Structure prediction request, 380 residues.
Amino acid sequence: MNKIQPKTSVKMNCPFNEEQLTQLKAFVELCKNQPMILHHPKLSFFKDYLVSLGVTLPTATYNTKNFTASGDSNAGAKVEEEVPAEEEEEDIESDVELDMEGVITDSTPADQEMGDETKEVSDEDRDLSDEKRSEAMRAFSEQKYDEAIQIYTEAIKLNPQSALLFAKRGQVFLKQNRLHACIKDCSRALELNCDSVAGYKFRGRAYRLLGKFEEAAHDLCESLKIDYDDQTNEWLNEVKPNADKIRQHNINVQRHREEKERREKLNRARKAQKANAEAAEEQAFSQGFPKFMGKIDLEQLLKDPELLAASQDLEILMALQDISSNPINFLKYQNNPKIAAALELFARKYKCESGATPEPQADTKPKPANKTPDDDVGLD
Prediction:
């Protein structure tokens, strides 16, 4: 029988030298700490290879400034995203389509006599005023409106503290479509008695005839609260559609105004943030940190062992990403020795890359001790 030969393992030579292996390991660590780097366009071949093996990669976006995994955000970027661009102000109609049927124009001035407010009314004056009021009511019922107004005026002169007299005379003015005079009398009646049902009722009707629907709805509602009346309720139902349209329009205008103020506030914040970032970048440059933030070249990063080694530290990576989003953030890392050293390293490397002369490095080699005369003995 033929003996089964044991399988022998095939020895494979590693195609990389030690330095290349070190760089490869560093690259793998970099991908572990910041997987979004795989979406860099220059690494598309490696990304395609991983996908062909069935590897699921984290979704990410990449641009010329930086590349960030989906869902990842930071304070600086968040503010920038929330600030909308300058938008054209939307026009809101200043007028509302209202039913203006029944609205009239009254150009008659409200110049009626209002009596002496400071007069001390005696009992006799009140009695005479009540008699005049009865006469005026008879004239009103007979549709003798001018006569009724004259008699009510005489009664008001006798007792200018009577809210009822002003409200009743206002009712007569309303019949004559002297709307401003009616409003003046009813307002005086409400000053004397804030619960004057007639004052609210007739002033509300006058407002409605003038096309002031919101004011009319308010007065008619107040009148119904104090004492229900079918005619007042009918007048209220007449003005409610227009009053509701005006109220909704005013709400829309207010919302539009608040939205405009919000946009302006956000735009001011965006401009201030941009100005602060530019100032911080200039300050960083003046302190030896050139404008490499947000512009780190991946190809240079992978070729330079020092940069690659520094990039393996997750804390340093997060700091670089934080600074790339908003250069002013470098200030908060100045007291962190590790990150400050890394920033100096990146600054020095990118300064050299841009063609600037690197700053002279301190000579760290040990200097020979000073010679003594005895040191030369035996050198012949």
Summary: The two ends are 82 Å apart (CA to CA). The chain has 14 helices and two strands. The CA atoms of residues 228 and 340 lie 80 Å apart.
